Amino acid sequence: MVIPPDEDKSMIDEAPSIQRKDVVRPAAALVDALRGTPTGFIVDAMGGSGALDYRIKPAIADQATFCGVALTCDAGPADNLALIAALEAVMPGDVLVCTTGNYTGCAVTGDLVLGMARNSGAVGFVTDGCVRDLPGIRMVGLPSYCIGVTPNSPARSGPGTVGYPVTVAGHPVASGDVIVADQDGVVVIPQARLEEVIARLPAIRTSEAAMDQAVRDGLRVPVFQAKD
Known about the structure:
The protein has 228 residues and is of the alpha/beta class.
């Protein structure tokens, strides 16, 4: 991004085309209970699904892990005014989730806006669009998932939304959902399912640990328990 922050601010103030909705965030204890959990375990706890499209990958390969609360915005194609407006709503621990409608003709953000998001307390960024300024993004250190990289830049005219439910590469995401990412990908846990998923994780961890040990001990063929 090349527009100075004060100019960005004036554009936000003059952007009636940006619709905003308040975010109801889950209790911090629920988010903390998921921190450090492999995405595969979380998917298993949700019945085998919940991950975003496999094409959404970390812009910087070794900056791939985070756990936080979704703050959604819909910037639409070739525009990022909604993303800039979302900066005002970022709370510590949030993950900015920005849909472009899968638009790849230009980047939706670069290192400057991502740096502002980090300064506001964001722990991650996810988009179904593209980013740019990879050396700067590495320096910023905010784990950022995208579908590609291009130096082309967006407009800043709107319209767009902040806080409303969005669809990211075909997957629904609502503000207040919990987003967990690691090298396997990005998983969305609906806020309404947090307690259910957390309750299932101990059994999944125990089962995985037992199988890991069995493989180390020489297991050659998987053993399945018969269902009643």
